[in-house]
Amino acid sequence: MQFRSDIFWKSACGRCPDCSAKVRGSADCTGWLARLWDTPAHCSGCGMALRRKEGFFLGAIVWNYGLTAFGVLPLVLLAQRLEWIGSVWAIRLAVGAIFLVPPLIHAFSWRLWIGTYYAFLPDQLPSGGRRLDD
Ligand SMILES: [Zn+2]
Question: Residue 115 sits in which domain range?
């Protein structure tokens, strides 16, 4: 198994991992707010299913949780540790972060998950022979 970083970065940057068409906001949704948390069901360029069948979303949840728990919350702890903020504000910021950050990075988490999945399994891409409807 080889990790294809080119596929991962294409997806992380909002492009289809297969055909490189711009995915974000081009298919199902319009408006900047909708693009924050909505990942189109299919690529507008090649028709590849981006939101696959049940259970596929679990990888996006892992990315979302990981970025929130290990990316954002340590910054709050660091700010408290450096005494930039007090303990009460650290708790307030942490509680606010756990409610606000996940919805704000939802689509980004999906892009990272899709990129991770197809970077490890590039033969699952439609150009590799997989059906488009799964
Ligand atoms: Zn595509």
Answer: 5-128
